[in-house]
Task: structure prediction
Amino acid sequence: MRSQQRYTTLKWVTAALLLIHLLSRAIFPAPNILIDLVLFNLVGLLAAVIAYSAPVLTDRISAITISLASLIWSTGSFLSTWNSFFNFQIPEVISDLCYSLFYPLIFLGIIRSFTYRRKISALELLDTVIITVGFTSVLTAFLLKPAMIGFSGSAFSVFISILYPVGDIVILAMTLVYVLLTPLSRRSLLLSSGLLSFALGDLFFIWSSLNSTYRFGSITDDGWIIGLFLILVSLSFDSQESKFSDKISSYSATIALIASTTLLGIAALKPGFFPNFILLPGFITIALAFIRMSFALSEANTAGTERILARTDELTGLSNRRNFLLQLNQLKSGYIFLLDLDGFKKINDTLGHEAGDQLLKQVANRFTRVLPVGAQIARLGGDEFGVIASMELVEATELAQSIRATLSYPISIGSEQVKVGVSIGLAPTEPSGDGSESLRRADLAMYEAKRSKSGVMVWESK
Result:
């Protein structure tokens, strides 16, 4: 309880400091060490603590990763701001490195945050990454091409110049995906608003810097810390049960793949039209699509196997009781045969269960060979089998005799020759589709056949 109170207090204190910073910026527009160096970066640091100590989390790794991203960004911001006030200059490469590390950390944390569930399939996660990276490649190519073609300088400076706007566009794409695939809740509202605030704030900074209109210490800089605060506070709320739509996910991933493929096609037809680095997300999208395809095929094969196993008797390979009853309910006109082996228990007890299993397999094979086209056979359990066929009484009686004839000669079990018989009860299927009633009547007829040792008995209404 005390930790919850401390956490709540920390959130309110950070929110109060953020509000104080906004008011101070509005009242004192000139750069100020207390406002711009201390208060501004303190909000980012406290936001990192909020995420790390959040008491309600769906994913601990997400909280730690996003907390670390905020901590690293705030460190870079502090070092960069320090150089604006003091003569003792800290190498810019350090702050640039901090800003660079922020993006992969925030990407990982956010993807885990809004796709994480108690159980998430590999396809859902791949779809999310494909959508994000695919839309990023298109947005980067058509929105940032004019600004990036003319970059010059060292390899690292060009990389940094590219990383920031591309990273912001990835965040915007992630926000779009999150809004489409996540139910509305306090968590989703705070997280999407935070992502939007940070990305737009950073893109505005880049745009104003390129146009030489940026002013250090302007109130628009607060878009960064407002975004971080909202993102990290969102992790303290439970997410609703995900309504991640497989159709929306797969359709969006397909659109992203088509867009990326189109982008690469344009680049192939017009070499040099897009900078090479812009094409990299397109290649990644296509590679991920192939990986997704392999996962989809694997899951489809697994699902097909599981469906077969769910309706198949493991020992004999015949239909199981559940599938048999489903087919029986669908048969409007015909007969149900209930078959129970005679003498099976004695063989099973004498020769053992393994011999009993071998006997059941051979019996199932013999029964199957005499069935007409369209007839269905199942093992209902133990030494009991069931057959359904759409036919008249005369044909059903003849089929029952044929089934009994398959056991007229011995069965080889190892070095032993054993012989079993079968008692069969027949009952017409119900036009109403009440399979349980038809099965009950066939069961009564079968027990009468076994009691009277007649072999086959047809149920008759009294």
Summary: Residues 335 and 393 are 8 Å apart (CA to CA).
